[in-house]
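Pilot study result, target chain (332 residues):
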Amino acid sequence: MELKNTNDICWGIIGVGDVCETKSGIPLIQTHNSSVKAVMRRNYDKAMDFAKRHGISKWYDNADDLLNDPDVNAIYIATPPETHAEYTLKAAALGKPVYVEKPMARSYKECQSMVEACKKANVPLFVAYYRRTLPNILKVKELIDNNIIGDIRSVDIAVQMTIENEIVGTHHLPNNWRVDPEVAGGGYFYDLASHQLDALDFIFGPIIEAKGFSENQSETYKADDITVGIFKFKNGIIGKGLWAFNTSKASQFEMTTIIGSKGQISFPFWGDHHVTLKLENQPPKKFEFEVPKYIQKTLIQTIINDLLDKGKCPSTGVSGARTNWVLEQITE
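Predicted structure:
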């Protein structure tokens, strides 16, 4: 299906859960030249509820029915990672472009199969790494590109969260797929660190070497709860990271720091969206940013533009697969 000659992207959404409610569903409905024609959820009543509340005329409890809907010409996959590859391959075979949630899949091998299937079918593949379009990350990239902190020496990622942290504090729920490696590929490292590593790929380019250690220290759930990694970018910049999801509240901390020859840039990924610039012999400068209420809005606009040949989306299957490769290298 060639979308360059159409004026409207007619989405079918597979998996209308929390992500659709809070981050992506409304922009897909409200963005110009974009509409949602059908939704799917395994629970028929919940699919119907979402559809009726948002003025969507069709709903299904079977993904194949939605994929084959003739009124749908693009697919958004918002399910847990275990079905990302399966649905992407089916959508590609039908000639329908795909927008898939992150992490892109459970493994780099699955990511490769998705990229190859879409390439063979000549359909675009986009991944929901929306931070590539947020103003704070764009500011960091601008500062780096303009050589404000000089030559980049290193990158440091620190994530220390309690299991009951508001971002990841859902382990007690029986359906928390994020800490089931068979469903998610890994634990919270895959779910959250993927955002950070992908954003760094956007800022600096590809990571070409990575290694690390990963353990399940607290044994609260199936997945590992602490990971340490080191990595090297193609341009020679070296980074390290600690992702601990088993600390006490006294140790909670989250910050990414980029160190250069003239100063440093630091910024969090969760909680707020500020960026702090520190230069030698100058007071720190803090930049504050607001993000859209539905945080995927700007990325979705780039996807619509790309499908209509009016621009380029910065988050593709190729870049998303690179992030999965790094996750695997560190946890292996």
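One observation from the pilot: The chain has a mean pLDDT of 95. A full batch analysis is planned for the follow-on phase.
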